[in-house]
Amino acid sequence: MRMQSSVLGLLLACVGLGAHPGQAADKAPQYRALGEIPVGGDTGWDYLSIDGDARRLYVAHGSHIAVIDLDAGRVVGDIPDTPGVHGFAIAHDLGRGFSSNGGEAKVSIVELASLKTLGKVGTGENPDAVLYEPARKEVYAFNGRGHSVTVISAPSGEAVATIALPGKPEFAAADSAAGRIFVNIEDKNEIVAIDTQQHKVAATWPIAPGESASGMAFDPAHHRLFIGCDNNKMLMIDSTDGKVVSSVPIGSEVDANAFDPELQLAFSSNGDGTLTIAHEDSPRKLTVVQTVKTQPSARTMALDPKTHRVYLAAATLLPAPTPAPGAPRHRPPTAPGSFKILVYGPAEGGT
């Protein structure tokens, strides 16, 4: 009986450890504003990408990409000639970056050391999200209006496949170990899983109770996707079968998500001027631990896993003109020179 009790106690302890993949939610660090990095300009912006090894932040901004030194906290370079750029995928192992130029239906191939453009490759209409899949050394450009994916060999710079999608793609994430790419289909309330070996859609999953997902982040250790939805929800989804296992409320106008594997924190940047931070208590439970006030328009972001800092793009918004009857509503204009990067991170001693 004594031996059975010891075994039972050990099993219970193991179960308890398995239920808490990271530090406890009540031990999660509190985030606060750490500063701002001025960028300037009044054109639109989209994705932010971090190269943690090179300590660089790439900010898609109108027709160019601003390059920021993370440690110095200032702009140190610029990648021009990227019309209507949405995002920048970093192939650090190849010394290359790939920008999705929505305004010209092309991807620019950039040498990271010099920031010089080596060439361009054609895509479908309006390439938006773009990511690098390191296992196969391929770049996936998700064509928003083209409802497709252009797959590019990163070493050769040549398009090797086109994959049709059921609707408009948004953020994407890669699971190299499983040979899968996941992408939100914004206008269909779905997620698509792509087989990276066969270059075809492997599964399509509904996201109810979520609607119109944009942002996406991934926890590879526990096979969990985090997606931000227009109906003020962040969902945690099992990436093996597409099941929604948990959800939490977030602010409005979400456009990006991030996940910190060390702190087990999922982030949602919301255009209403809030940053929602949730803790993955277990692979089946997500809990909001903090809502940080940021700035209206701060809807896109990137996470630095080294420092646990979050970088958000924002600008001062001007009153939007009243649209004509029946005309679509556009985003409000920005004040000239007001574009900047907001920096948030754990309070001193919080990690």
Short description:
The chain has 351 residues and is mostly beta strands. It has one helix and 28 strands.
Number of strands: 28
Structural class: mainly beta
- Widest β-sheet, arrangement of strands: 1-28-27-26
Number of helical regions: 1
Radius of gyration: 20 Å
Kindly give the count of domains: 1
Which architecture name does CATH use?
A: 7 Propeller
What's the SSE pattern?
A: HEEEEEEEEEEEEEEEEEEEEEEEEEEEE
Query: How far apart are the first and last residues' alpha carbons, in Å?
Result: 43 Å
Instruction: Compute the average pLDDT.
Output: 91
The CATH class is identified as Mainly Beta
Strand content: over 45%
Describe the structure.
With 351 residues, the protein is mostly beta strands. 5% of the residues lie in helices and 52% in strands. It has one helix and 28 strands. The strands form seven sheets. Strands 1-28-27-26 form a four-stranded antiparallel sheet, with no helix packed on it. It has a four-stranded antiparallel sheet with strand order 2-3-4-5, with no helix packed on it.
